[in-house]
Design goal:
The protein is α/β, with parallel strands linked by helices. The protein has helices at 2-20, 25-53, 55-76, 98-106, 108-116, 148-163, 180-190, 227-235, 264-282, 295-298, 303-306, and strands spanning 135-138, 144-146, 170-173, 193-195, 217-220, 240-244, 255-258. The chain has one domain (56-79, 88-301): Rossmann fold (3-Layer(aba) Sandwich). It is built from eleven helices and seven strands. The strands form two sheets. The protein has a five-stranded parallel sheet with strand order 4-3-5-6-7, sandwiched between helices. A two-stranded antiparallel sheet has the order 1-2. Helix 7 (180-190) links the parallel strand 3 and strand 4. Helix 7 runs parallel beside helix 9 (264-282). The relative contact order is 0.13.
């Protein structure tokens, strides 16, 4: 009996020792959470280093910020129901008058009306699967109407991305004639590099060419008309920002700015808005009223207007 009692006591002590080897469940849970947080922080630091080293990851970072900026802009931007009848309301004052433009810049509501009057959100009768998420409806004429709130959100994201880059390494090009004057004004005010005339194949990929460039960001006016620039930027791992209409294919574009990229006034408006936001990010202006040029200054002139 004494021997059995001693064996039982010994077994009991052994079990107690084994139980002491396990931590309290709550403590163990806390340690797991702390370990998980530490691993997550380490992963984020490694990811940050990867973004700085890889040009392609810059494009990924660009897309990550899009939804946040769009959701913020969606809560701040509203459109008038009176526009449903005819697509764009053209009864608002033109930006050609400097005094009227100045007043519009001081009043956000007037600025929005002025922007809408330029046809910036009027698309084409065709839509692609790439652009369907940017379309709100079709007007009675059968033209697809783009979501202006998403246009403004994407312009803000693009300006932030450009603001973190050496502006001299930002290349802007347009195969469309109406896009050349807006690009000239954009480059004049921001310091970006414009590529005018025919885009020479190899500009981004062939170092032996005299006009070879190594841009950090490429901005195109139309991903189809400027297809060569988009292809070469993609091969070089350079992020592409593109003004895209309802019928554009944007599979090789990193940041889409949904807008009418065919009309003179619409193109002038998009580049004017982008210039304004870039200048703010650069610290050159603080408010809309400080913009040194109007939308009319960005608009390409017809031959009749020049005579």
């Amino acid at each position: 009996m004494n021997m059995k009692s001693e064996e039982l006591d010994s077994t009991h002590d052994s079990n107690l020792n084994n139980n002491n080897n396990y931590s309290d469940p709550d403590v163990e849970k806390e340690e797991i959470q702390n370990t998980s947080l530490g691993n997550e922080q380490s992963t984020k630091e490694d990811s940050s280093e990867q973004v700085n080293q890889d040009g392609g990851s810059q494009a990924s970072e660009l897309e990550k910020n899009v939804e946040l900026d769009e959701s913020t802009t969606n809560t701040e931007t509203t459109t008038s129901n009176s526009e449903d009848q005819g697509g764009e309301n053209t009864s608002y004052a033109s930006s050609a008058n400097p005094d009227e433009t100045s007043d519009s810049l001081e009043d956000p509501n007037n600025l929005e009306k002025m922007i809408l009057s330029t046809g910036i959100r009027v698309g084409t009768p065709i839509k692609t699967k790439f652009m369907s998420s940017f379309i709100t409806r079709a007007n009675p004429e059968g033209l697809y109407i783009l979501d202006i709130s998403k246009t403004l959100a994407r312009i803000d994201v693009a300006a932030k991305f450009i603001g973190r880059t050496n502006i001299a390494n930002v290349a802007v090009t347009s195969a469309r004639e109406y896009g050349k004057t807006p690009i000239e004004k954009f480059c004049e005010l921001t310091g970006a590099r414009g590529i005018f005339g025919r885009f020479m194949p190899g500009t981004f990929t062939n170092p032996s060419l005299p006009k070879y460039l190594e841009p950090e960001i490429v901005i195109v006016t139309d991903p189809q008309a400027d297809e060569q620039a988009v292809l070469e930027a993609t091969r070089a791992g350079v992020p592409v920002i593109a003004l895209s209409n309802s019928d554009n294919i944007t599979s090789k574009v990193d940041l889409v700015i949904p807008s009418n990229n065919r009309g003179r006034k619409a193109l002038a408006t998009v580049y004017w808005l982008l210039t304004k936001e870039v200048l703010k990010k650069q610290g050159k202006i603080k408010s809309d009223s400080e913009m040194p040029m109007t939308i009319d200054d960005f608009e390409a002139k017809l031959v009749e207007e020049l005579i």
